[in-house]
């Protein structure tokens, strides 16, 4: 029998634990999901701000560094404004939540105080009734003690009363006795009721004290939230003022930006002329080799192979840096944010700290290794002819160059270090691929 009872209790306990777990897990899961969503949202905002600044850096690449820094500074401030706005909204929401919570607690406190006052009034009234009944009973006891009233029929007989008188007096005595018992019961009931009310009074007093302490805590939270809201609002206003000031400064320097852009375009044209010269040399080599192969009735080797993907498990192109490559600015046409002029960003920009090693992406010969006005420390490599095309690659803004013009290099060889030389506002990889004398998107080749 005892084993059966124990088994039943074990089953009940297991069910209770399972039920509590079932109730707890969804709540915990929802809390974790909410926290995860908030973290993800903050990370997305931070990433968006970072990308906005990186875009600003790339948009002014090639112009005067001081002017570029001015525009980047404005972009950095502008990128902080959405985050500051969101922080203000969160502070306002937290303040509103604290105020709602304070209202609820204060309402509960008022209700509890009202109930406590009512209970105190009931207790005072009950004590008065008990005191009145106790006085009445005391008077009856004193009368009995002095012999002023008979309590039993035997006492009446001994007193020598007649039968009729004895009957009347007996009824009266019994009536008095019943009244005494009723008064005693009423006193006992009132005492029990007062005891219950006293217990409730103590509980309500503790509840009122707890609610008062909770209200004070919530009020303190609301004050903190109010101060946070004020601080966030002030921060947002300062960012807006700073942004407006920087924009005004940018507009005032528009003529300087336009002049810097003209200089940059002139140097880009000169660099493109050099590329055409190198490509022309390769084109003549290509024609001569193709003609020679035709005379020998052979296929031209330069027309063979592929330009992308992998061959025999090895990628056609290597990577200019080690590890994961993160694009900060893609290849393509850009609109200058201040002047509105349009130009081609001939390379892909990759995130890279100053001093990181940069590598040759294929075997080839260095045709340029010098300091350029816009490109800074620059290395251009001719990779010859394959897959029917003529190929060159270029690394810009290096902090150091480890190869010289005319030097033969091999894929994976360190040719320099990442830097921020030339007309740029920060360190990064700027890598180009030129096919048949025309800039192409290098990401399509190195992202393998």
Q: What does this protein look like?
A:
The structure is a single chain. The protein is of the alpha+beta class. The protein folds into 3 domains: 1-43; 64-250, Helix Hairpins (Orthogonal Bundle), CATH 1.10.287.2610; 261-446, Glucose Permease (Domain IIA), CATH 2.70.70. It is built from 6 helices and 15 strands. The chain has helices at residues 2-59, 65-146, 153-158, 163-252, 254-295, 443-446; strands spanning 310-311, 314-315, 327-329, 332-335, 342-345, 348-350, 357-359, 364-372, 376-386, 389-398, 400-401, 408-409, 414-417, 429-435, 438-440. The strands form 4 sheets. Strands 3, 6, 8, 9, 10, 12, 14 and 15 form an 8-stranded antiparallel beta sheet that branches. Strand 9 (376-386) and strand 10 (389-398) form a beta hairpin. It is elongated, with a radius of gyration of 47 Å. The mean pLDDT is 78.
